[in-house]
């Protein structure tokens, strides 16, 4: 189940706090093996909504939108309780924060909005039988990689990475980051996209037309009774600028994140990867992507006309 982080097979010098490998996926110590084991037997409810994203794909954004939709635009509660308590991170456990995703989710009233970064094989077994709703939120991998790099540098949860960009890019390419390979995560979830209880959405589409995307999501969630005025208010409330200033969503209270290095909500842009990737790095990444996922024809957008 686990492998020593200083195994000779590991060519990367950076170690995550509590680093371990669980069923072939690398994790930090905040997703310990006993929690990952317990996740498989988590008691799923029929009215649960799972948000499945790879790290740094716009997860907090989708959590806030989804929670507000599922709670009919209850902004009063949203402005009093941090999003990570309203929408628990299923496989996360931090005793200092008193945040245990499994416990918070188990005690939460229905309907629950639950966040996860797990590949499909590590999800609760019951999701296949109970057919609760699942939102897959994808973001183009180049922007994900750059955002993850900055998060690695700012967060002690990842051991406060002191390496450079080329080193992190290689770690990302090979899946030597917390929650493992982006390629494996994406490939695992892609076949579920057409199931009636699954909604695939893209970060870039949400940036282009948030109201239309939120309205479509509301219909999927059975919340089509919410009027356009409330949907517009949700879209405004969940704009990047508002969420970055909102203490219930910006995570400035989280001890492990040094926002002076890079805040959790950093830029929220499409195409920022062009400020980080060299021409050669971009060409090499494109080749790797084509070799691993090219046959899936996922319609990622790497730039937008703002």
From TrEMBL:
Pfam families xrefs: Sulfotransfer_1
Signal peptide coordinates: none
Keywords assigned by UniProt, alphabetized: Transferase
Transmembrane segments: none
One function term, GO molecular function aspect: sulfotransferase activity
InterPro entries in UniProt: P-loop_NTPase, Sulfotransferase_dom
Superkingdom in the source lineage: Eukaryota
Domain Sulfotransferase: 47-295
Assigned protein family: Belongs to the sulfotransferase 1 family.
Protein name: Sulfotransferase domain-containing protein
The organism of origin for this protein: Candidula unifasciata
């Amino acid at each position: 189940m686990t492998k020593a982080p200083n195994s000779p097979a590991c060519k990367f010098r950076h170690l995550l706090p509590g680093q371990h490998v669980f069923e072939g996926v690398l994790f930090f110590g905040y997703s310990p093996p006993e929690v990952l084991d317990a996740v498989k037997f988590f008691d799923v409810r029929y009215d649960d909504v799972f948000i499945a994203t790879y790290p740094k794909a716009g997860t907090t954004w989708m959590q806030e939108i989804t929670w507000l939709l599922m709670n009919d635009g209850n902004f009063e509660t949203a402005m009093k309780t941090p999003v990570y308590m309203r929408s628990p991170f299923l496989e996360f456990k931090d005793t200092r924060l008193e945040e245990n995703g499994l416990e918070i989710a188990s005690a939460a009233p229905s309907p629950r909005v639950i966040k996860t970064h797990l590949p499909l094989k590590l999800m609760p077994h019951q999701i296949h039988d109970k057919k609760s709703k699942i939102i897959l939120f994808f973001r183009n991998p180049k922007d994900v990689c750059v955002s993850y790099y900055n998060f690695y540098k700012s967060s002690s949860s990842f051991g406060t990475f002191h390496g450079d960009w080329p080193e992190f890019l290689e770690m990302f390419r090979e899946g030597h980051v917390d929650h493992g390979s982006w390629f494996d995560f994406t490939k695992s979830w892609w076949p579920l996209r057409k199931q009636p209880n699954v909604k695939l959405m893209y970060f870039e589409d949400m940036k282009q037309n948030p109201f239309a995307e939120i309205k479509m999501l509301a219909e999927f969630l059975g919340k089509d009774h919410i009027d356009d005025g409330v949907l517009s208010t949700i879209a405004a409330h969940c704009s990047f600028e508002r969420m970055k200033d909102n203490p219930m969503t910006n995570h400035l209270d989280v001890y492990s994140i040094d926002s002076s290095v890079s805040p959790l909500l950093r830029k929220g842009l499409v195409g920022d990867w062009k400020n980080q990737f060299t021409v050669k790095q971009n060409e090499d990444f494109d080749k790797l992507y084509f070799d691993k996922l090219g046959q899936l024809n996922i319609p990622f957008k790497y730039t937008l006309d703002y």
